[in-house]
Amino acid sequence: MGALLAGGVPATNATAVAAVDPVWSTGRIARLPAEVQHAVHARCAAGPEAGHYFATFANSATVIHLDYSALQCSNQPRLCTASGCLHQAFAKMRSRYVLTRSDYE
């Protein structure tokens, strides 16, 4: 007799579950504020896809940190140099996000 899952359903009838949150996603960029999206598209115009933790939020989402090591661009190398990868910070000022830091780490 085969193994049983909770509820008495035979394990042989189980199917794989599709990943809910893909590794690379354009949706992560689309959910960012317009000013931040514009900055990302300026660096990566050809189909940017963000990985997990590309954008992180601080101070109740009034500060957004971008780590470009977690961004891939179609037909374009990553935004990294020998000094490290591009990191940017945007802060909310007067209901808009403005770039407050941009450097390679």
Note down, in words, how this protein is organized.
- With 105 residues, this protein is an alpha+beta fold.
- It is 13% helix and 32% strand.
- It contains 2 helices and 7 strands.
- It has helices at 27-30, 34-43, and strands at 49-50, 55-58, 63-67, 71-72, 80-81, 84-93, 96-104.
- The strands form 2 sheets. Strands 2, 3, 5, 6 and 7 form a 5-stranded antiparallel beta sheet that branches. Strands 1-4 form a two-stranded antiparallel ribbon.
- Strand 5 (80-81) and strand 6 (84-93) form a beta hairpin.
- The radius of gyration is 19 Å and the shape is globular.
- The N and C termini lie far apart (57 Å).
- 15% of the residues are buried.
- The model has no long low-confidence stretch (mean pLDDT 86).
Describe, in short, the structure shown.
By secondary structure, the chain is of the alpha+beta class.
List its salient traits:
105 residues; alpha+beta; two-stranded antiparallel sheet; 2 helices; 7 strands; 13% helix
Share in β-strands:
25-35%
The low-confidence runs, each spanning 5 or more residues with pLDDT under 50, are none
The amount of helix comes to 10-25%
Chain oligomer state: single chain
Shape descriptor reads globular
Beta-strand segment tally: 7
Output mean pLDDT: 86
Order of helices and strands: HHEEEEEEE
Q: What is Rg?
A: 19 Å
Distance between the termini: 57 Å
